[in-house]
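hey so i finally got around to running both of the ones u sent me last week. sorry it took forever, my laptop kept dying halfway thru and i had to restart like 3 times lol. anyway pasting them below in the order u listed, first the sequence line then the structure token line for each. didnt double check formatting much so if smth looks off just lmk and ill redo it

first one:
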Amino acid sequence: MIVSHNREVLGTPIDNDQIKNAVKKVLISPAQGWEGYVMREFELGQGGYSPRHTHPWPHINYILEGTGSLYLDGQDYALEAGSFAFVPSNELHQFTNTGEGRFAFICIVPEEGDK
């Protein structure tokens, strides 16, 4: 069981040749009792993006703040706070911050997706 706030969770900055200006926070996982799933918050700073990639698990996303886009199935979809998306297994996808401020979203994956 856990009751907390995202400001209480230390984020892990990620910035390399495939991911730019990102921070990952694991909010709820098997460590807190949610067996088999992990809820993370990602923040992409201005100009930030996730890798364009595929993987064998689906994920659910909910946009918390900012504006961005999701490349999925050959299309770019505009996203804003309140938008949500289901990304099926093995679909090529990428999140990009298209705004001037923070772009933050929840990403829920099966446990094997948070390695």
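and the second one:
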Amino acid sequence: MRTALLVIGHPAPGSFSHAMAQAAQHVLAASGYRCVRHDLYAEGFNPVQPVPEASNVASDDPLVEAHCADLAQADLILVFHPNWWSQPPAIVKGWIDRVFRLGTAYGYPEGVGFEGVPQGLLRARHALVFNTSNTPPAREQAVFGDPLDGLWRTAVFGLCGVGSVHRRMVGPMAGSSDAQRAAWLDEVDALVRQVL
């Protein structure tokens, strides 16, 4: 059975990030995927990497170890978070720091040191990232560009061996209608189906 890992990084349980995750999970489960869902805030995931973990190969935190195992076993990875200051929330960045670690998400060929080019180790061939924003899309692009795309496509998933990365930013959330939100959830459904 194929496994989909869904990671949510929004502090409000009733957020649209959670609604998008639920919509995606519905499609995945109906398609025969085993869904592993991690709500970082609900789990109390600690984003601070402690000094003994600085080598980034193991953790004394059982939750971190569980996340690493789930990441390594995932055939498909989906991440849901708001766009805060053109970045994910700190809890999501800490999740990347602690879970996308050496020996789990990437490694180096024999004889190649840390100054060399790492190889991606993740089994997943596809990743989907869904973001919410309150900035109108045209202003977002004109003023800020798209730093989240570079983060997820190149710096995280690309480095770790995931060649197909799809990202969708929806918004502005503030003042959005029920009809608009329903249309965005339909887009989530369609994007998930595209990679199945």
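quick thing i noticed on the 2nd:
The chain is about 40% helix and 20% strand.
anyway thats it, ttyl
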